[in-house]
């Protein structure tokens, strides 16, 4: 409610001037309220609300039965099974890339890490995503969570850091793809052939994203099944050769803690990425939490099964446990045919991870544009319903960053991701404290105190990951964060000068009436 003497302003009246509903909209539509008599209109002549005043501000949380209502049910195309595999690929994609955990710390710590870290990190992040993702079922995802709790400025910072982290992450998959193939095709190890392969692969997978989430979802299912079957076969072949004592090998004085933790963290995070596709999910209030539950189990098993087989059936040589070593293990256990199968599975799995991550990144930009945080051209969709500008921007970022090494990419993306997760944790607690009775299609089954306690271990893990970062990674990552701090005010200036058009999607749900903030970046949860 507005303070005494201040007018109430409904932000649901914001419409793009070229939207078909703009011409016949009225303040009475959808329960909108007129400003009080004498209140000065803040809407410019072209009908778009300035980003710095209202259009980037999330409009609060609903109190009624329409809480979390989707913007449109007819356009939602992603069902349960494709959603599970999209989550699987945004988080994992299979055991490809976990080899460094054994090389850094030995079998015991590697196995223990993939048992303990899901409890400390993956489950809390998945629970937060289930609650807030079903509460705000739109493509802004975690950007909307933070903007509604902490204000539009911090919502933009969340979007910037998470998008950049996602693009850096996606630059990793062409690297992994070629690393698995270079033993069979040595020309792909470097030089011009590798560069052309990266560009060609990126172009093909970008085109796949352009064709739509329905295509991407079912491609993810097919790739997931094909990528995991060789590890099932490898595990069965390994059974007669297993030596359980090999699982217990540890040398605590010879552990590369930075590489170990970054490898674990990279392989078990990004559960919140699916939230930026929530606007495309059928019945998100039920589908999203269930898909996350099944995906957590799926991911943990997909890591532990081949890890137990590889470390238990093959004599330990930690120096060999680097990116791509599972293909060599397959050859030792089953022969060249199994090695080629694993290499093919790795290549296709990286394709699945690429298209899933690019979908998340590009739809995030679309969601931010629909809330007025980015220029309106980011909200434009292709004839397949996909965010063309977001896809092109994400693909360009991948090409620019694909020359980095595997370890550099993992460390840099983890650093940025950690900052974004701190904002996400804060937003989750703010929503619980300030609006405990707001409608939540799914609610984490514990009180506010329990939720805060749940966040203590992952917050401590974030502190450790940041503390172990190298100086180079810290400087580059903090520089990227600094860009975001000035980019949001710069975009506000661009909008006020009307150099680019910004608008809010009128089809997004009306979720409350807010008073004009005392400061541009005031949080909008009362």
UniProtKB/TrEMBL annotation:
Sample GO molecular function, one term: polyamine transmembrane transporter activity
Compositional bias ranges of the Low complexity kind:
19-30, 62-73
Transmembrane annotation, as ranges: 216-239, 292-316, 336-356, 384-402, 414-433, 445-468, 474-494
Annotated spans, Disordered: 1-73
* Lipid bilayer topology: Multi-pass membrane protein
Cited Gene3D superfamilies: Amino acid/polyamine transporter I (1.20.1740.10)
Cross-referenced InterPro entries, in alphabetical order?
AA/rel_permease1, RMV1-like
- What keywords sit in the KW lines? Cell membrane, Membrane, Symport, Transmembrane, Transmembrane helix, Transport
- Kindly list the places in or outside the cell where this protein is found, as annotated in its UniProt entry: Cell membrane
Q: Name one GO cellular component term.
A: plasma membrane
Pfam family name, one: AA_permease_2
**Superkingdom, taxonomy of origin:** Eukaryota
- Family according to the record: Belongs to the amino acid-polyamine-organocation (APC) superfamily. Polyamine:cation symporter (PHS) (TC 2.A.3.12) family.
Its protein name is Polyamine transporter PUT1
- The species is Leersia perrieri
């Amino acid at each position: 409610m507005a303070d005494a003497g201040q007018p109430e302003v409904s932000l649901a009246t914001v419409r793009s001037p070229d939207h078909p509903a703009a011409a016949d909209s009225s303040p009475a539509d959808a329960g909108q309220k007129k400003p009080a008599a004498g209140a000065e209109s803040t809407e410019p002549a072209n009908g778009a609300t300035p980003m710095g005043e209202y259009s980037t501000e999330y409009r609060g949380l609903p109190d009624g039965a329409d809480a979390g209502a989707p913007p449109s049910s007819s356009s939602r195309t992603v069902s349960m099974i494709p959603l599970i595999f999209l989550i699987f690929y945004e988080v994992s994609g299979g055991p490809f890339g976990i080899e460094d955990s054994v090389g850094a710390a030995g079998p015991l710590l590697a196995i223990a890490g993939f048992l303990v870290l899901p409890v400390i990190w993956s489950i809390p992040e998945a629970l937060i995503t289930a609650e807030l993702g079903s509460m705000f079922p739109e493509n802004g995802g975690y950007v909307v969570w933070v903007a509604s709790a902490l204000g539009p400025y911090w919502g933009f910072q969340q979007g910037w850091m998470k998008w950049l982290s996602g693009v850096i992450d996606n630059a990793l998959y062409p690297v992994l793809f070629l690393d698995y193939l270079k033993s069979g095709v040595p020309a792909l190890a470097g030089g011009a052939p590798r560069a052309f392969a990266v560009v060609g692969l990126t172009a093909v997978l970008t085109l796949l994203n352009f064709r739509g989430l329905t295509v991407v979802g079912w491609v993810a299912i097919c790739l997931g099944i094909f990528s995991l079957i060789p590890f099932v076969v490898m595990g069965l072949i390994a059974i007669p050769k297993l030596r359980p004592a090999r699982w217990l090998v540890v040398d605590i004085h010879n552990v590369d803690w930075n590489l170990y933790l970054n490898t674990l963290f990279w392989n078990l995070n990004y559960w919140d990425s699916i939230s930026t596709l929530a606007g495309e999910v059928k019945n998100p209030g039920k589908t999203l939490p269930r898909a996350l539950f099944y995906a957590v189990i799926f991911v943990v098993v997909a890591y532990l099964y081949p890890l137990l087989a590889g470390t238990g059936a093959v004599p330990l040589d930690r120096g060999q446990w680097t990116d791509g070593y599972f293909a060599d293990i397959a050859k030792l256990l089953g022969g060249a045919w199994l090695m080629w199968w694993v290499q093919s599975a790795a290549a296709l799995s990286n394709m699945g991870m690429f298209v899933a991550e690019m979908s998340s990144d590009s739809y995030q930009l679309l969601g931010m544009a629909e809330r007025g945080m980015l220029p309106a051209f980011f909200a434009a969709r292709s004839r397949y319903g996909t965010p063309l500008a977001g896809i092109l921007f994400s693909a360009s970022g991948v090409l620019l960053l694909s020359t980095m090494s595997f370890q550099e990419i993992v460390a840099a993306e983890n650093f940025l991701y950690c900052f974004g997760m701190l904002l996400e944790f804060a937003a989750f607690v703010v929503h619980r404290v300030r609006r405990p009775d707001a409608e939540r299609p799914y609610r984490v089954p514990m009180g506010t105190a329990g939720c805060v306690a749940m966040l203590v271990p992952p917050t401590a893990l974030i502190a450790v990951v940041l503390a172990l970062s190298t100086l180079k990674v810290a400087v580059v990552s903090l520089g990227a964060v600094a860009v975001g701090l000035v980019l949001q005010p710069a975009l506000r200036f661009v909008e006020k000068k009307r150099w680019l058009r910004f608008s809010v999607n009128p089809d997004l749900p009306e979720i409350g009436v807010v008073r004009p903030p005392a400061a541009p970046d005031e949080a909008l949860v009362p």
